[in-house]
Amino acid sequence: MTDELRLGLGLWSGQHGDPTDAVALARAGEDAGFDSFWVTEHHGLPDGYLPSPLTVLAACASATRRIELATGVVLAPLHHPLRLAEDAALVDRLSGGRLLLGLGLGYAEHEYRAFGVDPATRGARLEALVGALRAAGTGEPFSAPALGLHDVRVTPTPARPIPLWLGGYADRAVARAGRLADGHLVGRGEPDIVAAASRTLATVRDPADPSFVRGLVVTCVLDAPGGGAAEARAGFARAQQAYAAMQRGRVVYAGLAEPVAPADVDAHLQVRGGVDEVVAGLRAVVASLAAWSRVHLVVRLLFAEPDLGTALTRVATFGERVLPHLR
User: Fold this and answer.
1) Which among 43, 52, 62 has a CA at the least distance from the CA of 107?
2) What residue segments make up the domains of the chain, in order of their start?
3) Fold (topology level) of 4-325
4) Which letter does DSSP use for residue 120 in this model?
5) pLDDT digits over 133-172, tens only?
6) Backbone phi and psi for residue 66, each to the nearest 5 degrees, phi listed first
7) What mean pLDDT is predicted for residues 32-57?
8) In degrees rounded to 5, what are phi and psi of residue 246?
9) CA dihedral angle for residue 27, residue 29, residue 32, residue 34, rounded to 10 degrees
10) Are strands 149-152 and 142-144 parallel, antiparallel or unpaired?
11) pLDDT tens string 230-279
12) Burial environment of residue 141 by CB neighbours within 10 A (0 to 12, 13 to 18, 19 or more)
């Protein structure tokens, strides 16, 4: 039975907007009653997709007081492990112990080429990195030979041990999260994907274990006044088309391709409709994870769209009309 439900706002990825928009949205999420604010990462895309999530979260730390600041996810193999540990420790300090560090492998080949990283090594690097980050948080000297680190130290230390989550869909990635991490994030909360992850995780982690969190991102459009539904669908359509293009090896993103038809967009939304339908849909998602002691539901309300005002209104409306029914 779920003992703890936390509700996150995400995923901010920066297209079309000023990076300072993230600060305003994190503050709006806190005011609306969300428990966490999530950002993500890509590189080399022409529309300004966020390349440095921890830098943005450092800015958000100074404008918020309560909300957890989370990465969903840092593309871990592209980062120098010592630099990542130091940056994470500082963001956690600046936020007063509010960083949740989600790590993943990514999938875009051009990013690995740009950083000179062999993608064949990425799984092993991620596994080694989890242990290295935990050791780094102690402030004591440590070594991680698999990452080329020998007798190094990270100071200052984080405000507390930073929760480390892993993302991924493949059975191997999901099992890795269950073995090594404090949580697993499903980035696309389709029912069959969530169920498959549950089955794999349960082979390596007791669902009743209160030290582990089941996290998932659910894409949601609220068809109600203040929900900004038309803008949300248009932004989501641009993003979906771009993801598919990147996976085919072409670097295109939002604004560089025509949106797909709205009907096609709705097929990719996990939850949509009026207030009652959205509440019922999100409750059903949570119910599907009832076996897990701790659940963190990240509601994807932020898309590739240029108008900050519409997004701020959407967040406030969701906080007023939907969140109270999920507590």
Assistant:
1) 43
2) 4-325
3) TIM Barrel (3.20.20)
4) G
5) 999 999 999 999 999 999 999 999 999 999 999 999 999 9
6) -120, -40
7) 94
8) -60, -40
9) -130
10) antiparallel
11) 999 998 988 777 777 776 665 554 455 555 665 688 988 999 999 999 99
12) exposed
**Token reading at 85:** 């540990």
The DSSP secondary structure of 160-215, one letter per residue, reads SPPPEEEE--SHHHHHHHHHH-SEEEESS--HHHHHHHHHHHHTTS-TT-TT-EEE
> The tokens 């957890």 sit on which residue?
68
First to last CA, the chain: 15
Q: How far is the C-alpha of 71 from the C-alpha of 10, rounded, in Å?
A: 10
- pLDDT, position 253: 46
Instruction: Identify the three-state secondary structure at position 269.
Output: coil
The reply to whether the predicted model has a pTM over 0.85 is yes
Classify residue 65 by burial, with Cβ atoms within 10 Å: 0-12, 13-18, 19+.
Answer: exposed
Query: What burial class does residue 265 get, using C-beta atoms within 10 Å of its C-beta: 0-12 exposed, 13-18 middle, 19+ buried?
Result: buried
CB 39 within 8 A of CB 12: yes
Mean of all residue pLDDT scores within the chain: 93
Encode pLDDT of 64-120 as tens digits: 999 999 999 999 999 999 999 999 999 999 999 999 999 999 888 889 999 999 999
Six token digits for residue 39: 């950002």
Taking residue 75's Cβ as centre, other Cβ atoms within 10 Å add up to 26
Nearest to 303 by CA among 269, 261, 264, 278: 269
- Separation in Å, CA 236 to CA 5, 45, 108, 259: 26, 17, 19, 8
The b-or-e profile of 279-307 (16+ CB within 10 A means b, else e) is bebbeebbebbeebbbbbbbbbbbbbbee
- Look up tokens 């582990």; give the residue: 212
Instruction: Please give the angle made by the CA atoms of 217, 246 and 105, to the nearest 5 degrees.
Output: 55
pLDDT of residue 177: 98
Which pLDDT score is estimated for 255? 54
